[in-house]
Specification:
Blueprint: H1 2-23, E1 25-27, E2 34-36, H2 41-57, H3 67-85, H4 90-95, E3 99-103, E4 111-113, E5 118-122, H5 126-129, H6 132-147, H7 150-172, H8 179-219, H9 226-236, H10 252-270
Parallel strand pairs: 3-5
Antiparallel strand pairs: 1-2, 4-5
Helix pairs in contact: 1-7, 3-6, 6-8, 6-9, 7-8, 8-10, 9-10
Amino acid sequence: MRAQRFTRAVTICCLIAGGIGLAGCETNPYTGRRQLLMTSVGQEMQMGAQAYNQVRNDPKMRPSQDPREIEPVRRVAARIVEAAKRSKYAEMAQQFQWEVTVIKDDKTANAFALPGGKMAVYTGIFPMAKTEAGLAAVMGHEVVHALARHGAERMSQGQAANIGMQVIGAAIGIGSKNPALGQAAMGALGVGAQVGVLLPFSRKHESEADYIGILLAADAGYDPRESVVLWERMAQSGGGGQPEFMSTHPSHDTRIEQLKEWMPEAMEIYQKRAPMPAAPLPEIGGR
């Protein structure tokens, strides 16, 4: 009987998820992947602006005042944005209000781009990127996260999962005479949703951003082969982490192999553009 209720609840959940998917799906113009999106672009841009202001107003975050750090980032950002405006995301790129901040944090090897075009680059990424071409691989990747609406897709997946959990919880015994059974089942389903749905989509986001990101970098005139060198440096820097199936990011080896597979397409674009020099980024620390 309990098994029947569980099966029926899962069926209901799938039907609801299917209905949500039909109501809010879009297709990625590069990969053809269907995306569940339950927020508007305007809402995303508003959230992106709010998050960006929080970062900039955080007393722990120090915007760099050093032109040697600011100028190459702005130069790369401007060329990536111009490439985005020529891309299949042209309409979105045109309406975004692009802005970039360099954050003085030599220990954080990171960068991000928020919905609406607000970007930040931490100086700790410089030793990994090494050159402006390496930085273009990083920034192309982050810009794609914003243009492909990956943040909105993650939120939408979470909303859909929560709806499904509530339906299943009501159907299989949360609050019934045997609440322990319902809680145990919900716990199992929570792990199932996390590993089986949410995290794999996050890995798809990362791979999608890697792929389209090197196309943007190539179209901006930066050698896309630097993306492979970048991730080889990332791998050499250490940090094994969790197994790939439990991670939101592909493994370094997976990433490098995928980039190599996509490289002929990126090189074909790059060879049609005036190449940008692989200018070295400034050294950090000890100055």
